[in-house]
Amino acid sequence: MIVRQLNDILATDRDVQAETWTSRRLLLANDKVGFSLHDTVMKAGTETTMWYKNHIEAVYCVEGDGELEDLVNGRRYPLSPGTLYVLNGHERHIVRPKTDVRMVCVFNPPVTGRETHDDEGAYPLIIED
């Protein structure tokens, strides 16, 4: 059994800061559960382009308001508490938070915590032994 408190991972290597977001990685590949789980805050007034070409990501918004744009078809979707989106087609997308937006994110395959977005907005596929 794994039990963690968010406060226990703040200011550790599982608390990853970027210019437009903060991701607190509650579960990672080395936890050996088959997915990673992140508590992520997208910063108000920013824009982040992402493309998880090596991962499926499911995102559940729990706080805040913003917009999700699918760059494959140009559709835009409101983000608010209770919204779920799944990038099951590895869609390139943009998140535009109007306020700070807090989301619970699940990645499959799991991320290791060492990944950084490349020039395309993607995480490389790193496999843990």
TrEMBL record:
Record-stated family: Belongs to the ectoine synthase family.
Gene that this polypeptide is encoded by: ectC
HAMAP family tied to this protein: Ectoine_synth
InterPro entries: Ectoine_synth, RmlC-like_jellyroll, RmlC_Cupin_sf
Pathway: Amine and polyamine biosynthesis; ectoine biosynthesis; L-ectoine from L-aspartate 4-semialdehyde: step 3/3
Residue ranges the record marks as coiled coil: none
Top enzyme class: lyase
Recorded catalytic activity of this chain's protein: (2S)-4-acetamido-2-aminobutanoate = L-ectoine + H2O
Protein name: L-ectoine synthase
EC annotation from Swiss-Prot or TrEMBL: 4.2.1.108
GO term, biological process aspect, one: ectoine biosynthetic process
SUPFAM superfamilies noted in UniProt: RmlC-like cupins (SSF51182)
Keywords assigned: Lyase
GO molecular function, one term: ectoine synthase activity
Pfam families assigned: Ectoine_synth (PF06339)
Task of the protein: Catalyzes the circularization of gamma-N-acetyl-alpha,gamma-diaminobutyric acid (ADABA) to ectoine (1,4,5,6-tetrahydro-2-methyl-4-pyrimidine carboxylic acid), which is an excellent osmoprotectant.
